């Protein structure tokens, strides 16, 4: 008997432990890491332009022991999580605007402990 797992791969019926591992892999693909996970959250990043008015939240994650590259994770107003390519020109502009607004409003720099800034998407500028 063959069953299709939630990751879309065909496999034989599996134990609960194997099912849990598959589900944890699926959550990683969806962009939500398990607690304490030390790996990149973004499996694939997109560089296509997403209008800023469609973004509800943008999270900037600096490189560190968990991941060798910086990550830009956006959540759309529809609730979809999308990893953005930090090298895309429009993403660089978006990140610059978020950082400038953060520095202007708080006078702070990135937290040395977390290396993260989480911000609401900027109003149209």
UniProtKB/TrEMBL annotation:
Residues 37-98 form the Chemokine interleukin-8-like domain. It comes from the Eukaryota. It is found in: Secreted. GO terms for biological process: defense response; immune response. Keywords: Cytokine, Secreted. The keyword Membrane does not apply. Its main location: secreted. The keyword Secreted applies. GO terms for cellular component: extracellular space. One of its GO terms (molecular function) is chemokine activity. Belongs to the intercrine alpha (chemokine CxC) family. This is Chemokine interleukin-8-like domain-containing protein.
